[in-house]
């Protein structure tokens, strides 16, 4: 069986010093592409522990022709995509599903498989037999944090966020960029980046020159932190004209993901034109806190409330938040997961956020995706979060010193969660309102997806999202 490598994205590693110290001075340079088999050989020597040590965005692949095994693996949460398909005596790997379909005209979407987050896939190159296992299990990793002293927990998160942001700073680049929506997550990263870098530009999307809630907040944040602010104004026509391209870029069909991907598609093109290759985001914070609520907007026609999605009560519990972040192993064992796209944020955030950026040569840098940060926040007991006022209350504790010293106004934390695509409460003036008013519902988006990807997805209503199987 031949190996056909269609990957286009090079790995990005954040813990260079640690790897050099443990594995030798020449190690880091080789780890960038891994084509000489060093990743595979180190894995064979040190086992799963070696892969757990790599902190970054990666999707590695190697063909051991002596042992007749093809080895593939992916980062812990699935930031970098990796898919494969077996066809005509060959196995094809690609970062993008579209590349597999383009190179294999007879391939069906349902025949494509994702290398899941934290997964090792070993394929016998003679028989085609596939073996899989997890090198890391986020759900089973022990959380040693005691939440009786919440101020201490908040201080840990503060320090971990600063370190994670600093680790992701790319040396030798002249411009540091970040995506700024106006919410707490992106605001917190904007502040940290502003303390570490001098030349920082924040990018915010605006639809049809409407002063949305998110845009007003973003103005205030950039002014407070002394950050350059670039507003990407897109017309309703531009939004409508790029829906199919956004579906193609994101390779996903869920309405809440596609609406977000439309914005990412527009932002990615601007970042590329501006010569930006790396951009910070606050992605991951909402999932860790379980800060998603029923998706209720204003119907553009009736002006009444319209429920687009009901979120699961499992978000209230640590197990539910962990499942949304990383996946539900019980469901996977029963075959109840997306085989083509994978699990957890690797499926959702990886598609709606990362893929549109990767296709334009842009890397997203998400400090909240650090394992320790996600583990600590996701496991804050619901009763404690509720008592302190949810995410805003905890994040005030995280940045208590900055609030007390006047570096961050407390009012920047006193905001209600607004989905990126909505831009304002009710979705008016954002991507959501624009697309809904022109008939883009779940059924229509799935039809577009099926046409692009030779798929046969059924247009089921996505009103309830069940995270855990009781």
Automatic annotation (TrEMBL):
A single Gene Ontology biological process assigned to it is:
asparagine biosynthetic process
Which residues does the UniProt record annotate as the domain Asparagine synthetase?
A: 157-295
Establish whether keyword Nucleotide-binding is in the entry: yes
Query: From what organism does this protein derive?
Result: Candidatus Magasanikbacteria bacterium CG_4_10_14_0_2_um_filter_37_12
Instruction: Provide the Glutamine amidotransferase type-2 domain boundaries.
Output: 13-101
Keyword DNA repair among record annotations: no
Q: Looking at the record's lineage, which domain of life comes first?
A: Bacteria
Stated name of the protein: Asparagine synthetase domain-containing protein
Q: What GO molecular function annotations does the UniProt record carry, in alphabetical order?
A: asparagine synthase (glutamine-hydrolyzing) activity; ATP binding
Q: CDD domains attached here?
A: Asn_synthase_B_C
Which Pfam families does the record match to this protein?
Answer: Asn_synthase, GATase_7
């Amino acid at each position: 069986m031949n190996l056909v490598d269609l990957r286009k994205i090079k790995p990005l590693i954040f813990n260079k010093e640690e790897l050099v110290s443990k594995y030798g001075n020449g190690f880091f340079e080789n780890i960038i592409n891994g084509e000489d088999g060093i990743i595979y050989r180190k894995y064979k020597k040190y086992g799963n522990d070696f892969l757990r040590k790599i902190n970054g965005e990666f999707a590695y692949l190697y063909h051991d022709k002596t042992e007749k095994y093809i080895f593939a693996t992916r980062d812990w949460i699935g930031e970098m995509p990796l898919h494969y398909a077996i066809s005509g005596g060959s196995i094809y790997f690609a970062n993008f599903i579209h590349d597999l379909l383009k190179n294999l005209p007879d391939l069906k979407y349902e025949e494509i498989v994702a290398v899941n987050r934290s997964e090792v896939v070993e394929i016998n190159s003679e028989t085609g037999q596939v073996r899989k296992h997890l090198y890391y299990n986020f759900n089973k990793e022990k959380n040693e944090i005691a939440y009786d002293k919440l101020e201490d927990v908040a201080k840990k998160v503060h320090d971990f966020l600063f370190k994670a942001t600093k680790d992701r700073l790319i040396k030798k680049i002249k411009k540091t960029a970040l995506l700024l929506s106006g919410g707490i997550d992106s605001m917190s990263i904007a502040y940290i980046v502003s303390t570490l870098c001098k030349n920082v530009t924040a990018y915010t999307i605006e639809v049809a020159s409407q002063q949305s809630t998110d845009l007003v907040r973003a103005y205030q944040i950039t002014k407070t932190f002394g950050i350059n602010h670039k507003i990407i104004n897109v017309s309703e026509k531009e939004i409508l004209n790029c829906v199919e391209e956004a579906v193609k870029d994101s390779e996903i069909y869920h309405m809440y993901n596609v609406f977000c991907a439309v914005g990412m598609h527009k932002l990615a093109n601007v970042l590329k034109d501006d010569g930006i290759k790396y951009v910070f985001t606050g992605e991951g914070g909402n999932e860790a806190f379980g800060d998603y609520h029923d998706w209720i907007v204003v119907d553009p026609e009736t002006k009444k409330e319209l429920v687009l999605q009901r979120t699961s009560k499992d978000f209230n519990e640590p197990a539910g938040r962990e499942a949304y972040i990383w996946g539900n192993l019980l469901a996977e064992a029963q075959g109840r997961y997306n085989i083509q796209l994978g699990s957890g944020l690797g499926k959702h955030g990886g598609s709606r956020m990362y893929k549109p950026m990767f296709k334009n040569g842009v890397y997203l840098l998400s400090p909240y995706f650090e394992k320790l940060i996600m583990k600590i926040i996701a496991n804050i007991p619901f009763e404690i979060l509720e008592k302190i006022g949810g995410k805003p209350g905890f994040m005030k504790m995280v940045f208590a010193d900055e609030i007390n010293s006047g570096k961050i106004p407390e009012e920047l934390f006193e905001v209600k969660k607004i989905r990126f695509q909505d831009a304002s409460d009710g979705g008016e003036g954002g991507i959501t309102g624009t697309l809904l008013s022109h008939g883009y519902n779940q059924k229509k988006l799935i039809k577009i997806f099926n046409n692009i990807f030779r798929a046969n997805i059924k247009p089921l209503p996505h009103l309830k999202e069940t995270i855990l199987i009781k």
